Amino acid sequence: MVYHAIADLLKLCEETKKPLWEVVLQADMESRQVSREDSYHTMESMYTAMRQADQNYDKSLRSSSGMSGGDGEKMRAFNESGKNLCSDFTALAMEKALKMAESNACMRRIVAAPTAGSCGVIPAVFLSYEDMFASNRDEIVHALFIAAGIGAVIAENASIAGAFGGCQAEIGSASAMAAAGLVYLQGGDEHQMMQAAALALKNMLGLACDPVGGLVEVPCIKRNVAGTVNAISSAQLAMAGIESAISPDDVIDSMYRIGNIMPHALKETSEGGLATSESARKLCKNLGN
Predict the structure, then answer these.
(1) Which end of the chain, C or N, has fewer beta carbons within 10 A?
(2) Please, what sign has the CA dihedral across residues 109, 149, 88, 78?
(3) Domains in the chain: boundaries
(4) Half-sphere exposure of 17 (CA within 13 A, CB side)
């Protein structure tokens, strides 16, 4: 099975009468010339790594720059206080997004999903769903295949790299992938999954990649939380039957065009945006930069 667009994925589901995750799994088997068991095991192993990274979060760790670490624990304590206005699910996902992104900055083992800088979004949504709703592990793996299919289309037709498309390509892509997978976990159909992805990506269009000091910490870590909440809200819109006026493939194409015209200074170079603010200069001075 070969697909190059969201429309291709939907067409394959219709023609083969297979669910989206099966279509993506089959495509992976054919592309990498592996068995069904190998393909499934690879994805399952990635989810296991996500779970281990969450469980192994160390609140005492700080990144070598000193700019990050410990915020995941602060979020946990705040959630524990009962003061978080979000639902228990969203609050937990925010906590996990921080923990995963901080673990990346502290050189812990994470899964680049789709990149290291956006590693917190997908795990935050899927791990929280399993924890809150006792979802079957196989269902989570199926959701990961769906996320992977969305990510593959974005990577082919736009980009998942901040150096090319800005942070819209990293956090935006991760958010779209997580949104589609969450719709699956909630029992939505393929059309709703794609609408959720489109809605999530639309909300992130034009997002600059402006890391302070060239490090994947500020503002990257907190943006993982924003991408997580965006994925959840977009999935709920789609589940309610609300659709994107712009087709999913057109949203992806728009991200590609925006990336092309985005200034070089806003594409991971640390030459613009937040990276050149007065606050950033002070942080970098303390880093010896």
Answers:
(1) C
(2) positive
(3) 6-287
(4) 0
pLDDT tens for 57-71 read: 999 999 999 999 999
pLDDT class of 36 with cuts at 50, 70, 90: very high
Query: How confident is residue 130, by pLDDT bands cut at 50, 70 and 90?
Result: very high
**154-197 tens-digit pLDDT:** 999 999 999 999 999 999 999 999 999 999 999 999 999 999 99
Please choose, from the candidates 109, 118, 132, 131, the residue with its C-alpha nearest in 3D space to the C-alpha of residue 46: 109
Structure tokens at 210: 């402006």
Euclidean distance between CA atoms 210 and 272, whole angstroms: 6
Is the N-terminal amide bond of 263 cis, ω within 30° of 0?
no
Q: What are phi and psi of 189, to 5 degrees?
A: -95, 180
- Residue 134 binned pLDDT confidence (cut-offs 50, 70, 90): confident
Residues 278, 279, 285, 289: is their CA dihedral positive or negative?
negative
Q: Say what the pLDDT of residue 129 is.
A: 98
Burial class (CB within 10 angstroms; exposed 0-12, middle 13-18, buried 19+) of 44: middle
- Provide the residue type at 277 as one letter: S
Burial class (CB in 10 A: 0-12, 13-18, 19+), 2: exposed
Residue 48: what residue type?
A: T
Cα–Cα distance for residue pair 24/47, rounded to 1 Å: 16
With DSSP H G I counted as helix, E B as strand and the rest as coil, what are the percentages for the chain, rounded to 5? 70, 0, 30
Examine the pLDDT at 103 and tell me if it is beyond 80: yes
The domain over range 6-287 is classified in CATH as 1.10.4100 = yes
pTM over 0.70: yes
Q: Which residues contact 42 (CB under 8 A, 6 or more apart)?
A: 34
Cβ neighbours for 56, distance < 8 A, ≥ 6 positions apart: 103, 108, 109
**Omega prior to 114 cis, within 30 of 0:** yes
